[in-house]
């Protein structure tokens, strides 16, 4: 068999396929997809299968999730074999400037392009889909260092929601938009939804474009080779590279990828081999395609030096993907421990601080070249609060000041974490001031200069950029600025341009970022602290009084509260509903924060995984509390009415879950009722002024001396023309298909109460969303049935054959 491409895709997007001239070479897009699939599909199947086997391995975490043995061997894409000890020793040798045969570092052969270098381009990186084109224009216009066109967590849908009227998944239009934008084919103005959009920057001022590819576990059902869906990562890499390489090179840029979800050296090696084959096909230099790593899997931390070593020709930065990372930690311990409320495990929690510092230190150690220049750096995590619009019906925009302060503080914290001072002097703590004044000898590294953001909102981006772009001298001055507040509902919130408040100072001091006098205190590292592999992993002075494994992986202590359980279900259900509708990047009203919070597959992973572990272990609630029913509040209709009292010690079992489920269903109906009230008021508001004028004439004398009641009523009725009302009804229509509300509730009930665990469970929603209503429930239950029974039902004709393909996909059976 040969390659088969969805006919609708070929019909609608012919410009993405066929013969192209790239870097002076002739390339046929579909031929290259087929070639790479035949060469690497078995490798991808093998590493994905290994993920499932590891996940199902019931050995204790402390036994199966250890750092590699010192003598364990690893291989790179050139066939070089080194033990774990040799790789780590080579990393140490590079950091200490020892010119040994084991020494290695990042990007020594093909330099990092200036537009991609994370230390030469301080500021925020914005991520999101490029469909529709307005989103691409927003990213271009934003004051950011990089724009990340996304085909992963916040991607345009890879599927067609049932009833959407689409014939092709939205991701295909996004790919065409990328091609059009890079070719300069942007209408001026671009009109969308009656609104005009303009690109406000000349091409040389655009942020650097980075393409986020899908994970190895994702399949592309629009393209098949030998009857099987191709790995989506291959489709994504080929279409982006072949269609856009020449345009990117014309403007002094290149093909850059963000690589997600990598867990092991084997997975990293597969990605490396695919990229090398693409470079060979296009006649590119080895390492010309550069990558950034999403360090978002806890398991990847076990192998981080090895992954860096395998990617040493092209790895430029490593991002702290905070959400997936927390989800993967909960997942790692799913069979033997229950995490406390994940809402309380923020980036200032000790395990998350160790995670950020580990990433920063390895980027430093591997990033140095032989002349001491840095070729790589860490990148901070997502800031994802979305500001409320001024016309919010509940005036929740009054809380936007809190969001602005939060991103400023978040990025300041990251910047300070990345200050590492290497010295041979016998000191354990120094201030930035003393370093800048030359009072202590050593070298200061300033590593966290980039970080992620989810919205191009100008004031939000400005607040996040300030700590990242500031000079070292300005950092201390920012901390010492006068403390200022804005008052919201009688609550004082620190202003975005305020110095650190006393509470914030206490937090930063606890984190070791400032001293008792408010002076910035970089992380001090003396060479003898890590001059051997054993010291790097076991020196408690490096890792906050613990060895590295314990600092990264030991489950934290804390409360499990019924309120946070309900909040987790609320967030999972709301995101799942939007995902069913084809929206992978969903702004959800987070009633705990009082803000809109951008959710994606990673946040869904956190909450759904945590809820699954609570049910599996019948975890006990640790504090008295209550499940809440819907109530109208200043934040809208939210779970706020204490309905069912829950005592400390109560088990979270299926009976209690059922009560939670029912209350969320009740909230859903109350929420929709209130949305309809808001729409009704907005529609009627269009006519208020004219109705007022008619009433004025009727009431101004008598009343009704000049205008009778019946004439007044007729005049008012004449205002409500069908055409005008139709326009108003359409303008106020809900964005999403509400019929999917009951669907996500059914999915969550089956998924969370099943003993079968799904990794990256968003795929379950993706495969169910395109199915007609009459098939979806049957398929859902089949997907949580033992495979041999599903196979039997397919053979007997009681299930359609595609169900088995979907089963193997979501369970990573390859």
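-> sequence recovered:
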């Amino acid at each position: 068999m040969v390659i088969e491409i969805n006919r609708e895709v070929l019909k609608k997007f012919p410009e993405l396929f066929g013969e192209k001239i790239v870097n002076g070479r002739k390339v046929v897009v579909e031929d290259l997809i087929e070639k790479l699939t035949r060469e690497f599909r078995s490798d991808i199947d093998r590493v994905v299968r290994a993920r499932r086997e590891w996940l199902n391995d019931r050995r204790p975490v402390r036994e199966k999730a250890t750092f590699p043995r010192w003598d364990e061997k690893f291989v790179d894409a050139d066939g070089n074999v080194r033990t774990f000890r040799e790789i780590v020793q080579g990393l140490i040798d590079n950091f200490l400037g020892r010119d040994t045969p084991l020494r290695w570092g990042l990007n020594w052969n093909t330099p990092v392009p200036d537009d991609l270098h994370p230390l030469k381009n301080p500021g925020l990186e914005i991520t999101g889909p490029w469909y529709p084109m307005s989103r691409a224009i927003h990213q271009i216009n934003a004051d950011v260092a990089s724009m990340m066109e996304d085909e992963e967590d916040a991607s345009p849908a890879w599927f067609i929601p049932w009833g959407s009227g689409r014939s092709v998944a939205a991701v295909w239009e996004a790919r065409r938009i990328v091609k059009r934008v890079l070719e300069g084919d942007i209408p001026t103005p671009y009109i969308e939804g009656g609104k005009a959009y303009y690109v406000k920057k000349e091409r040389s001022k655009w942020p650097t474009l980075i393409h986020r590819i899908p994970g190895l576990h994702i399949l592309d059902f629009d393209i098949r080779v030998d009857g099987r869906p191709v790995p989506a990562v291959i489709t994504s890499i080929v279409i982006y590279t072949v269609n856009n390489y020449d345009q990117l090179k014309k403007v002094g840029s290149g093909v850059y990828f963000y690589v997600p979800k990598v867990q092991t050296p084997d997975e990293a090696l597969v990605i490396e081999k695919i990229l090398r084959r693409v470079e060979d096909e296009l006649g590119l230099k080895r390492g010309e395609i550069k990558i950034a790593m999403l360090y978002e899997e806890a398991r990847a931390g076990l192998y981080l030096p090895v992954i860096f070593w395998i990617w040493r020709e092209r790895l430029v930065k490593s991002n702290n993907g905070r959400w997936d990372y927390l989800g993967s930690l909960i997942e790692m311990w799913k069979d033997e421990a229950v995490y406390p409320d994940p809402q309380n495990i923020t980036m200032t929690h000790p395990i998350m601080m160790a995670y950020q510092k580990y990433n920063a230190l390895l980027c430093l150690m591997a990033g140095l070249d032989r002349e001491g220049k840095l070729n790589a750096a860490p990148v901070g995590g997502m800031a994802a609060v979305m500001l409320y619009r001024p016309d919010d019906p509940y005036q929740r925009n009054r809380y936007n000041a809190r969001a602005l302060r939060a991103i400023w503080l978040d990025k300041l914290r990251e910047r300070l974490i990345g200050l590492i001072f290497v010295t041979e002097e016998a000191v354990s703590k120094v201030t930035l001031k003393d370093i800048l004044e030359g009072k202590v000898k050593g070298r200061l590294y300033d590593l966290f200069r980039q970080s992620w953001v989810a919205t191009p909102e100008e004031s939000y981006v400005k607040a996040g950029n300030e700590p990242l772009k500031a000079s070292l001298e300005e950092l201390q001055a920012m901390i010492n600025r006068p403390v200022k507040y804005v008052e919201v509902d009688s609550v004082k919130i620190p202003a975005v341009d305020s110095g650190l408040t006393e509470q914030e100072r206490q937090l930063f001091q606890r984190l070791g970022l400032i001293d008792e006098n408010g002076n910035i205190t970089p992380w001090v590292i003396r060479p003898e602290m890590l001059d051997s592999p054993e010291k790097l992993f076991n020196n408690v002075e490096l890792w906050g009084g613990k060895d590295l494994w314990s600092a990264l992986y030991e489950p934290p202590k804390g409360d499990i509260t019924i309120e946070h359980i309900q909040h987790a279900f609320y967030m999972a259900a709301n995101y799942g509903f939007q995902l069913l509708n084809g929206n992978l990047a969903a702004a959800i009203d987070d009633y705990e924060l009082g803000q809109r919070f951008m959710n994606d597959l990673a946040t869904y992973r956190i909450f759904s995984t945590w809820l699954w572990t609570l049910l599996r272990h019948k975890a006990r609630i640790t504090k008295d509390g209550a499940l809440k029913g819907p109530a109208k509040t200043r934040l809208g209709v939210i779970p706020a009415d204490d309905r069912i009292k829950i005592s400390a010690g109560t088990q979270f079992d299926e009976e209690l879950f059922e009560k939670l489920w029912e209350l969320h269903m009740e909230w859903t109906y109350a929420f929709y009722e209130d949305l309809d009230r808001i729409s009704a008021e907005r529609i009627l508001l269009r006519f208020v002024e004219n109705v007022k004028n008619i009433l004025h004439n009727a009431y101004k004398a008598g009343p009704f001396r000049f205008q009778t009641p019946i004439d007044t009523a007729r005049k008012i009725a004449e205002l409500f023309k069908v055409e005008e009302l139709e326009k108003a009804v359409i303008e106020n229509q809900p964005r999403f298909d509400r019929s999917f509300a009951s669907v996500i509730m059914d999915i969550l009930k089956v998924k969370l109460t099943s003993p079968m665990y799904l990794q990256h469970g968003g795929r379950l929603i993706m495969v169910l969303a395109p199915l007609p209503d009459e098939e979806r429930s049957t398929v859902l239950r089949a997907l949580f049935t033992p495979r041999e029974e599903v196979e039997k039902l397919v053979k007997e004709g009681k299930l359609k054959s595609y169900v088995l393909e979907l089963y193997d996909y979501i369970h990573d059976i390859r």
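Residues 395-447+458-525 form one domain.
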